Amino acid sequence: AQSVSQHNHHVILSEAASLELGCNYSYGGTVNLFWYVQYPGQHLQLLLKYFSGDPLVKGIKGFEAEFIKSKFSFNLRKPSVQWSDTAEYFCAVKSSWGKLQFGAGTQVVVTP
Amino acid sequence: DTEVTQTPKHLVMGMTNKKSLKCEQHMGHRAMYWYKQKAKKPPELMFVYSYEKLSINESVPSRFSPECPNSSLLNLHLHALQPEDSALYLCASSQVGREEKLFFGSGTQLSVL
Fold it and tell me: Are A85 and A111 in contact (CB under 8 A)?
């Protein structure tokens, strides 16, 4: 069965620090990969997605993610975070036949 | 208009009440979804409507009853809920077959007493 795992449940870091959130999935076929963000009190928003092509994907707000097929990973990165990046981040995977499946989420808190 | 609007934003109900959650979008999307999200957990798919027909029901208890009266509206009727049903209920929409581009509403925070 398809599954998605996010390595960290909580991350606390200071402004200007670099952020990397891990995401691994278990499905051997073709997948579409996503990162969603949920700011406090707001709805889920698509941050970036990967379908095919260049495995390094650029998203909104300076985020990027790298798809490493051999590691079944799709880690999210931002070189320098801001206080406004405080949010919950969800990795999601969709196989060619299955439904969109979310990881457990990582709560990121950026301190001033 | 790229919004999915959900009402009410908050709802408190007793276990014997009947209530409805409403969702509306005017993006021309013909796929609409209900997700349930417990605190500190990822969203879980409940129902999918495609062209106003129920296409996916993720074995949700019958105390949750979805309805899609037209291509812009999606309702979730609630009856005889349990306290463990307290959660954030999210509506989303997309073009059919384009689940990767979901537009989410802000959700209804439901508390069952």
Answer: no
Structure tokens at B47: 């129902």
Give the H/E segment covering residue A24: strand A23-26
Alpha-carbon distances of B79 from A108, B36, B103, B106, rounded to whole Å: 36, 16, 27, 22
Smallest Cα distance from A79 to chain B, Å: 25
Look over chain B and give the mean of its residue pLDDT values, rounded to a whole number: 90
φ, ψ of residue A60 in degrees (nearest 5): -80, 160
| Pairing relationship of beta strands A3-6 and B4-7 according to DSSP bridges | unpaired
Identity of the residue in B42, B48, B90 whose CB atom sits nearest the CB atom of A104: B42
pLDDT tens for B40-59 read: 788 888 999 999 999 888 88
Size (chain A), residues: 112
- Would the CB atoms of A104 and B102 count as touching at under 8 Å? no
Angle at A33 between CA A28 and CA A36, to 5 degrees: 145
Cα of A96 to nearest chain B Cα, Å: 10
pLDDT at A96 > cutoff 70: no
